[in-house]
């Protein structure tokens, strides 16, 4: 039985003094490969879906965005195919998540039996080709919107490599290193969320018409350039995987072992470990907890813009600007939280940090519940016929109706949410979500132990993709029909159920080696 000292990992990385140089080189090479995985995770998050401003005043018309590419998707979609409406935009959001949900277990299974370099290069190449396909979606004479839909589905399919990335980092780190490595990986993911919109904003100076590269038959403009930049990033990623990434596997003590995901020769230790089984109840519980965490955040980012437009009477432009600033702030805050999580987990343990994260998220949504006697401004149906508005609309300009749409009957009976409530909630959720996110899959990787984790990480990623697909559908319907009290009340109930599930399985959510008595 091993007794791990969390403050001293050096003995775990070296067998004896005579092999210092060799062990140091292995250590450096291992962390170079892990950093390539950080970069891969960063690139995957640059294309992850994020919800943006409302496209119209219809009940389900939520304009949707991604980070680097999809910030400009809605105007690009309207430009290449005028028949596309906001409801079709919802299918494009779902296509990305569904593509990732299908691909994650497949790439995970592949990585269990072959060098991880193979599924990584294949998935990144699919992503690269899909972004080029997206940039050329204007070329076909008809059905352009379906070409854009297919391109987004393939981008999501390529993003299924997140399962391989997580399984690689889990297999290349000791128990002591695992939480820190997973937190760093999540910080890179958060950085992708921040830089995606920033890169899109920088590329917008090219303009809508841009320039035409005749020999490639390519229109280089503010809509196609982000996709092409993503393709360039993909090419760089492929080169890093081919030239830098090496197969590294360590046991939970941190000692190098022969890779077990595709090599027929096994060490004695690994053969002994293979007899011991994974606690599948704990594994399923971790999957459910991860689904709840991702579902809650999908609801949060979906509802932010329409909620602010309804409650604060912001215009679409104001909603994009102010919520963009808030989301960038939450992104930077998340990076700080990921760094603090490493220290908190080493002192208090992974499970208490996860439980505390659920508590903070619960407080964030409780704060959002409407109260008081102040009601939101109503956006009446006959506003456009008002003579004063008609006078104001003369000339080239028009007046955009603001406030809570009259079709949402709850607007007349539900108190308004104050700006201070909204910002306080954003802050709390921006603290609780990163903690829950990194702790849920860190615990999951420790529960799985030294066995190949590709398929299991594939199912975890698939559950997250399913949550990102169902969350926006749930909140758009409940919020539109019943209002924020029901929407946020149900989310609070889901958070409580998640905490109860965590407490009920608390004693089982432990590392594989701890469960089998090899490590204390």
TrEMBL record:
Region (Disordered): 1-25
Major facilitator superfamily (MFS) profile domain sequence ranges: 33-510
Primary residence: membrane
Cell compartment(s), UniProt: Endomembrane system
A GO molecular function held by the record: transmembrane transporter activity
Annotated signal peptide: none
PROSITE patterns for the chain: MFS
Cellular component aspect of the GO annotation: endomembrane system; lysosomal membrane
Keywords tagged on the record: Membrane, Transmembrane, Transmembrane helix, Transport
Membrane topology category: Multi-pass membrane protein
Membrane-crossing segments per the record: 88-108, 120-137, 149-169, 190-207, 227-245, 281-300, 320-341, 353-372, 486-506
Protein name: Major facilitator superfamily (MFS) profile domain-containing protein
């Amino acid at each position: 039985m091993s007794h791990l000292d969390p403050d001293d990992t050096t003995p775990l990385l070296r067998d004896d003094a005579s092999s210092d140089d060799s062990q140091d080189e292995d250590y450096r090479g291992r962390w170079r490969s892990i950093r390539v995985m950080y970069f891969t995770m960063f690139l995957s998050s640059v294309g992850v879906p994020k919800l943006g401003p409302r496209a119209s005043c219809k009940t389900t018309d939520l304009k949707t965005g991604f980070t680097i590419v999809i910030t400009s998707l809605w105007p690009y979609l309207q430009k290449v195919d005028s028949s596309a409406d906001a409801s079709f935009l919802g299918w494009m959001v779902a296509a990305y998540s569904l593509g990732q949900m299908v691909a994650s277990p497949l790439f995970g299974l592949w990585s269990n039996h072959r060098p991880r370099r193979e599924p990584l290069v294949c998935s990144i190449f699919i992503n690269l080709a899909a972004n080029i396909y997206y940039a050329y979606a204007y070329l076909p004479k008809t059905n352009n919107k379906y070409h854009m839909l297919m391109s987004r589905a393939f981008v999501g399919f390529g993003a299924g490599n997140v399962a391989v990335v997580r399984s690689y980092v889990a297999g290349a780190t000791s128990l002591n290193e695992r939480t820190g490595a997973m937190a760093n990986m999540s910080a890179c993911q958060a950085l992708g969320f921040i830089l995606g919109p920033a890169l899109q904003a920088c590329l917008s100076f090219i303009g809508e018409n841009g320039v035409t590269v005749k020999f490639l038959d390519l229109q280089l403009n503010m809509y196609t350039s982000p996709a092409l930049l993503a393709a360039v990033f993909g090419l760089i990623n492929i080169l890093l995987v081919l030239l830098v990434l090496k197969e590294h596997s360590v046991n939970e003590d941190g000692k190098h072992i022969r890779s077990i995901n595709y090599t027929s020769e096994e060490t004695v230790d690994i053969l002994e470990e293979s007899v011991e089984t994974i606690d599948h109840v704990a594994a399923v519980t971790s999957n459910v907890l991860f689904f709840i965490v991702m579902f809650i955040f999908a609801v949060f980012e979906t509802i932010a813009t329409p909620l602010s437009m309804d409650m604060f009477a912001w215009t679409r432009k104001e909603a994009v600007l102010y919520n963009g600033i808030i989301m960038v702030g939450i992104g930077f805050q998340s990076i700080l939280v990921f760094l603090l999580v490493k220290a908190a987990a080493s002192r208090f343990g992974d499970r208490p940090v996860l439980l505390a994260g659920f508590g903070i998220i619960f407080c964030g949504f409780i704060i959002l519940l409407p109260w008081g006697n102040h009601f939101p401004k109503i956006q009446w149906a006959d506003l456009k016929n008002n003579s004063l508005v008609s006078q104001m609309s003369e000339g080239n300009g028009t007046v955009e109706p603001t406030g809570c749409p009259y079709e949402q009957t709850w607007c007349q009976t539900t108190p308004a949410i104050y700006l201070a409530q909204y910002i306080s909630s954003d802050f709390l959720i921006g603290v609780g979500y990163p903690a829950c996110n990194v702790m849920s899959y860190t615990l999951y990787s420790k529960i799985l132990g030294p066995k190949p984790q590709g398929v299991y990480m594939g199912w975890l990623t698939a559950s997250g993709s399913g949550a990102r697909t169902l969350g926006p559908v749930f909140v758009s319907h409940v919020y539109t029909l019943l209002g924020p009290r029901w929407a946020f009340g149900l989310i609070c109930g889901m958070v409580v159920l998640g905490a109860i599930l965590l407490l009920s399985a608390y004693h089982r959510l432990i590392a594989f080696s701890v469960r089998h008595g090899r490590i204390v």
